[in-house]
Design goal:
By secondary structure, the protein is α/β, with parallel strands linked by helices. It contains eight helices and 15 strands.
Length: 352
């Protein structure tokens, strides 16, 4: 991974063959160098990339926020067709301009910059989509698991962290599992199989018959301080070591939650990491009053349930990081899809 200057105001960051959580610090460091050099256009060269997982997408969200804060334009160059779809699917297109090689898409660069850009990039990476959900414009649950309300999901678009109203927060919940016979993939398999039963009693998860698999919908009915809320999530990414649940329009948050596991010495670390913003002004207010702590209790409970299942100590740690403190007032219209408000009729019916 390196930074090359197209001229004094534009730079090209050539990515590695893999974009994941391990590359986050390097990429942010190189981007900081571009800031220090006064570059206003930074182009990410995807041509060497073989694979990006959902943690890599999270890294790009943070880079897009940083670029916006610095009033820089962040671009992605030479994405193949499938990766352009993944950018649209995850909402990355909201903060990162997709560049190909047509004159219109390269608008804003001088002829000399365009020449250098094409000269410096060589298409070698496969850009494979292993683990990613298919391109989905609007959600449609193929089935209704017994007991699920199945409201506020069908017909909705997905919303990424850049598409919410509130500040973007990253919340990381950690559990160290000291069982030498367990491997990271074993822990993820257990989490996929038992995620519904690991939920607290007020949170009902209803996976499809295929379970936690890329492209599948998990319906959710939750008893919140504001009453019953019916919604769901899409499994936007899944592999042997991680899976990511992404929210639809109207969900309390806009963003995703990633479950991942890795080896730490002789132990295994299980991690649940949310990267999201409140979906609309109503939810932002609710999160500030009680919703944030309510949510944190849920994910701590899930990891404690996993610890109990495995027979290990339930010492759950949480790290909360502000990614962006700004409200996006242009997203106020998200209120139209608010699942909590749209669930009011079902709450009223409970009393009759």
């Amino acid at each position: 991974m390196k930074l090359s200057a197209l001229d004094k105001s534009a730079g090209l960051i050539t990515l590695d063959d893999i974009l994941d959580a391990d590359r986050e610090d390097s990429l942010k460091s190189i981007f900081s160098e571009a800031i220090q050099r006064g570059m206003k256009n930074v182009i990410l060269d995807f041509s060497p990339l073989n694979h990006m997982n959902s943690a890599g997408a999270s890294t790009l969200v943070k880079l897009a926020v940083l670029a916006k804060r610095q009033k820089m334009r962040l671009c992605a160059f030479r994405l193949n067709k499938r990766y352009q779809e993944i950018f649209d699917l995850t909402g990355l297109s909201e903060g990162i301009t997709k560049f190909n090689e047509t004159a219109d898409e390269l608008e804003g660069l001088s002829k000399a910059e365009v020449h250098r850009l094409k000269e410096m990039t060589v298409g070698e990476g496969e850009q494979d989509d292993m683990g990613w959900a298919p391109n989905i414009v609007r959600l449609q649950a193929a089935e209704k698991p017994q007991g699920a309300m199945n409201k506020n999901v069908n017909g909705r678009r997905l919303t990424g962290p850049l598409q919410g109203f509130g500040p973007i927060w990253q919340k990381t919940y950690l559990l160290t599992i000291n069982k030498s016979e367990l491997q990271p993939r074993d822990v993820i398999t257990i989490m996929k199989q038992h995620l519904p039963e690991f939920q607290p009693s007020q949170n009902k998860f209803y996976p499809s018959a295929k379970g936690i698999a890329a492209g599948e919908i998990v319906l959710i009915d939750s008893s919140t301080p504001g009453g019953i809320l019916s919604t769901g999530v899409l499994v936007v990414y899944a592999d042997d070591f991680s899976f990511t649940l992404m929210t639809p329009q109207g969900h309390p948050e806009a963003g995703w939650v990633t479950f991942s596991s890795e080896k730490k010495g002789s132990a295994v670390e299980m991690r649940i990491q949310g990267l999201a913003s409140a979906g609309d002004p109503f939810y932002e207010l609710a999160f500030r009053i009680v919703g944030s702590k309510f949510q944190e209790t849920i994910w701590k409970h899930v990891l404690s349930s996993l610890a109990s299942y495995l027979g290990v100590e339930a010492d759950v740690q949480m790290i909360k990081t502000s990614i962006s403190g700004k409200l996006q007032f242009m997203k106020t219209s998200n209120l139209w899809y608010n699942a909590q408000i749209r669930s009011i009729p079902y709450n009223i019916l409970r009393f009759f």
